[in-house]
Design brief:
By secondary structure, the protein is of the alpha/beta class. Helix 14 (527-540) packs across helix 17 and helix 19 packs across helix 20 (672-686).
C-alpha cells in the first residue's frame, strides 16, 4: 500500500523563486474512478481502437471487469503487483493494464522487446504475484501457466466485476515503473492512484481550455508502456472520453512514415519526445489540436515550427519519481524554452548547495514536493532521495538532480548535476551502461559518454579497451543485449587505453569524437557506397570502411535508422525503414539505392509526351456514353415518379414503362448495392490482366484505367447511403481488408 505524501508547508510569503502556487490539488480518486466517469458520460464513444476495430467505453469496461474477475480467481488481491509483458499496439495490452488496476493491484510493465534478464530482474525486485504475457497467459512466479485472461471474453456492456474483487483506494499503488540505476540495477518507482489521478486531473486543467478534449478526439499511443510517458498518452484519452489509438512501434520509430498514419487515423493529440517529432514532415501534424513534448530538451526552432493557430504546443518536465509531469509551459515561439510552472498540487523549489532557495534569475537544483511524489521500492533509496528538507519546511521532498534557472514566468532547464542523461526521452544512468560494458568478456576497461551526431542527435558511446587484438563488435553487442534494453546499448569505440586525470578517474572530455574509422587501412568505397557511408557517419558517428559493414553492429538503432532513411530519401524517395532492417550491410543498401535511382531515372516523367490525338478522340466519344450511364439513374427516378402519379387520375399523359423495368432500374442505378456492382464489374472486366508496371500514355492500358475510373465517377458507387458497405465494395474491387 502506498503512503500518501505529506503536503509541503505553504511558504508563498517567503519564496524568492516565485514558484509557489495557490491552486489546490485535484480531489482524491483512483484511475478506475477516472475511466468509469468517462464511461458514464459517454458510454458509446470509442475508447480504444486497434487493427481489430474500435471498443466503446462500455465495451472496454466490460472487458476490464471480466479481466479483473479472472485475475481475482487466479489469486490476485488488492495490494498485489502483477507484471505485464505483452506486444505493443494490441488492445489486450491496455485491457490487461486496466484489469490489473481494477483488481486492486499495481501493474509492473516490461517492454516485450527488452531482454529476459531485465524482465526477470524487474519482476523479481517488484515481487509480482504473476505476469500477464503474450496472448493473455497469466504465469505464476515459478513459471507455471495458471490460465488465460482473455479466452472467449465477450465485451458486452452488461458485464460486471466479480463481487469478491476489491476495488483500489487512492492510497493503493497504480503502477510500478523501473528506471535506470547508477549502480547497474534498475530502480522501482511506485506511484499511487492518488498521485496518478491528480496528475491526470491537473493536466486536464491546463490543456485546450477554450476547446477541451472530448469524444471526437483521438490520441496517439506510440510509447512503450514501460516508459512512464505512456501513462500520459493513455489518460489524455480516457480522462476526456476520447479514443486511444495505438500505433505499431516500428511506425512510430520510422519518423517520416508516421505522418500519413497520423493523418489517416485522424489523430488530434500526440505526446512525444522532440527527437521523434523532428523527423515528421509538415503535413503529419495538420490535424493535431494538442502536441505535448517531454523527456528531453525541446529545441527552440522545432517548437516555433510546430506551433499553429489551431494547435497548442506544450513543453513538460517531470521525473518518474514525481508522477510523469511536475510542470509545464505553453509554447508561444519565444525564447528561452521554458519547462514552466508546477501542476496544481505539485510544489517546486530551486535551491543552492546548502538547501536554501535561490533568488529569481539564479540557478540551482530543482526540488519537487506535493501530491505527485512517488516512492522507491528500496526503503534506503527512498529515505535518501525523499528525505525531509527543513529549509523548505517540507517533510518529504524529491531531489531531482536537475539544474534549472528560477524564473517566476517558468523554469528554464540547464542540465544535470550528475551522470544521469536523457536520450530519446528515456532516462539513463551512465553507471548502469558502464557496468554492463565492464562485464563484457572481451573488455578490460570501459567508459560511457554522451556525444552528438552531425545531425544533432544525442547518442551513447561506449569506449572499450579489449582484452585482445580482435574485438568483435557484433558479439559484444549481442552480449550487451542479454542485460540491457536496446536503447541503452551504446555505439562501441575501441581504444588502446582510456585517458585518465591525475585523480585516476577517466577523463571523459578527452575521449575522441568524432570516432575514427572502424577498421584498418584506407577506405576503398566509391560512388553510391561512399555517399551512403557519409550518411552513416552523420547518424552513427562512425565511418564504415568497407561494404561488409553492418549498420546495427556499428551501433545503429531504430531512431538512427529513421534519421538515415530521411537522408537516403533525398536520392531514393521510396526507401523505407524496413529496407534498413532487410539490408543492414552497406554494400547491399547502396545497391538498393542505386537500383531505385536507375529505375526513377529511366522514366522522365517531366518530359512525358501528351496523349496522342487518336486517343483523345476515343476518350471524347467514350464520354458521351458515360453521360448516358450517369443519366440512367435520373431516368429511373422519373419513370418511378411517373408510375406513382399514374395511380392517381389526371396524370395519364405521363410516359410509362413496365413495372419490371422500373424495379430493375431502381435496383441497378439507385440502390448502393446495384451501383457498387456495376462499378466493380466494370473495373474487373476492363482491368482484367493488367499487372503493376509502367505503361505508355495513350495506350490500351491507359484508356482501360481511365474508363474504369470514369464509370465509377459517373455511377457514384458509394455515396452517403453506401458508406456502411464500403468494405464490401473494396473487396469486390480486389482489395484485401
Amino acid at each position: 500500500m502506498m503512503m500518501t505524501p505529506i503536503e509541503p508547508a505553504d511558504s508563498s510569503d517567503q519564496d524568492p523563486n516565485g514558484l509557489d502556487r495557490s491552486h489546490a490539488a485535484p480531489p482524491a480518486r483512483t484511475l478506475i474512478d477516472v475511466i468509469r466517469a468517462s464511461a458514464e458520460a459517454h458510454p458509446d464513444a470509442s475508447a480504444l481502437e486497434d487493427e481489430r476495430g474500435a471498443l466503446s467505453y462500455a465495451e472496454l469496461l466490460a472487458l476490464v471487469n471480466r479481466t479483473a474477475g479472472r485475475l481475482h480467481a487466479l489469486g490476485v488481491r488488492r495490494g498485489d503487483r502483477v507484471g505485464v509483458r505483452m506486444p505493443s499496439g494490441d488492445r489486450y495490452l491496455y485491457v490487461a493494464i486496466l484489469g490489473v488496476m481494477a483488481a486492486g493491484a499495481a501493474y509492473v510493465p516490461v517492454d516485450a522487446d527488452d531482454p529476459q534478464e531485465r524482465a526477470d530482474l524487474v519482476f523479481g525486485e517488484a515481487r509480482v504475484r504473476g505476469v500477464v504475457g503474450a496472448g493473455g497467459e497469466f504465469v505464476d512466479p515459478d513459471g507455471t501457466v495458471a490460465g488465460g485472461l482473455f479466452d472467449g471474453q465477450d465485451p458486452h456492456p452488461s458485464a460486471r466485476p466479480t463481487r469478491d474483487v476489491d476495488a483500489p483506494t487512492p492510497d493503493d499503488d497504480a503502477w510500478i515503473i523501473f528506471t535506470s540505476g547508477s549502480t547497474g540495477v534498475p530502480k522501482g518507482v511506485a506511484v499511487s492512484h492518488r498521485s496518478a489521478a491528480a496528475f491526470v486531473d491537473a493536466e486536464a486543467r491546463l490543456f485546450l481550455q477554450d476547446a477541451p478534449l472530448g469524444p471526437d478526439d483521438r490520441v496517439l499511443a506510440g510509447l512503450s508502456v514501460a516508459f512512464d510517458a505512456s501513462c500520459e498518452e493513455m489518460w489524455l484519452a480516457w480522462r476526456h472520453s476520447s479514443c486511444l489509438v495505438p500505433a505499431p512501434r516500428s511506425l512510430v520509430r520510422s519518423g517520416e512514415d508516421l505522418g500519413p498514419w497520423l493523418v489517416g487515423h485522424g489523430i488530434t493529440v500526440v505526446s512525444t519526445v522532440p527527437t521523434l517529432a523532428a523527423l515528421w514532415p509538415e503535413d503529419a501534424i495538420e490535424n493535431l489540436r494538442l502536441l505535448i513534448f517531454g523527456g528531453e530538451a525541446l529545441p527552440p526552432e522545432l517548437s516555433a515550427r510546430l506551433i499553429g493557430d489551431e494547435r497548442e504546443v506544450w513543453n513538460t518536465y517531470g521525473p518518474t519519481e514525481a508522477t510523469v509531469v511536475a510542470c509545464a509551459a505553453k509554447m508561444d515561439g519565444s525564447a528561452p524554452i521554458r519547462i514552466g510552472l508546477p501542476l496544481d498540487g505539485w510544489e517546486l523549489a530551486v535551491v543552492d548547495g546548502a538547501g536554501n532557495r535561490v533568488g529569481a534569475g539564479e540557478q540551482g537544483e530543482l526540488i519537487i514536493g506535493g501530491v505527485g511524489l512517488a516512492r522507491y521500492l528500496d526503503p534506503a533509496k527512498d529515505a535518501e532521495k525523499y528525505a525531509p528538507m527543513e529549509s523548505l519546511g517540507w517533510q518529504r521532498a524529491y531531489r531531482s538532480g536537475d539544474l534549472v534557472r528560477a524564473d517566476p514566468e517558468g523554469l528554464v532547464f540547464l542540465g544535470r548535476a550528475d551522470d544521469q542523461v536523457k536520450i530519446g526521452g528515456r532516462r539513463i544512468e551512465l553507471g548502469e551502461v558502464e557496468s554492463a560494458l565492464q562485464n563484457l568478456s572481451a573488455v578490460t576497461a570501459a567508459a560511457v559518454a554522451v556525444r552528438h551526431s552531425a545531425g544533432g542527435t544525442a547518442m551513447l558511446v561506449g569506449y572499450v579497451v579489449p582484452t585482445g587484438e580482435d574485438f568483435d563488435r557484433g558479439a559484444a553487442r549481442a552480449e550487451l543485449a542479454e542485460s540491457l534494453p536496446a536503447p541503452l546499448i551504446p555505439v562501441l569505440a575501441v581504444m588502446e587505453e582510456l585517458p585518465v586525470r591525475t585523480s585516476g578517474k577517466v577523463d571523459k572530455a578527452a575521449l575522441p569524437w568524432p570516432l575514427p574509422d572502424t577498421g584498418e587501412g584506407d577506405s576503398a568505397l566509391s560512388g553510391t557506397a561512399a555517399w551512403l557511408a557519409e550518411q552513416w557517419t552523420a547518424v552513427l558517428g562512425l565511418r564504415p570502411v568497407d561494404e561488409r559493414a553492418d549498420f546495427f553492429e556499428l551501433g545503429g538503432g531504430s531512431l538512427a535508422a529513421a534519421q538515415l532513411v530521411s537522408r537516403i530519401r533525398v536520392r531514393a524517395a521510396e526507401f523505407t525503414m524496413s529496407d534498413v532492417y532487410d539490408l543492414p550491410r552497406l554494400g547491399k543498401m547502396a545497391e538498393a539505392i542505386g537500383e531505385e535511382e536507375h529505375a526513377t531515372g529511366a522514366t522522365n516523367y517531366s518530359s512525358a509526351s501528351p496523349t496522342p490525338p487518336l486517343m483523345q478522340w476515343v476518350q471524347s466519344l467514350s464520354a458521351a456514353a458515360l453521360f448516358v450511364l450517369a443519366g440512367a439513374r435520373w431516368v429511373t427516378w422519373l419513370l418511378a415518379a411517373s408510375w406513382l402519379l399514374g395511380l392517381v387520375s389526371g396524370f395519364e399523359f405521363l410516359p410509362s414503362a413496365p413495372e419490371w423495368v422500373i424495379v430493375t432500374g431502381l435496383v441497378l442505378f439507385v440502390t448502393p448495392f446495384g451501383r457498387m456492382a456495376i462499378a466493380a464489374a466494370a473495373a474487373r472486366l476492363l482491368l482484367l490482366g493488367v499487372r503493376p508496371g509502367d505503361y505508355p500514355r495513350g495506350g490500351s492500358v491507359h484508356i482501360r484505367l481511365w474508363l474504369a475510373d470514369q464509370i465509377a465517377l459517373q455511377i457514384d458507387p458509394v455515396g452517403l447511403a453506401g458508406a456502411p458497405w464500403v468494405t464490401y465494395y473494396a473487396r469486390a474491387l480486389g482489395a484485401k481488408i
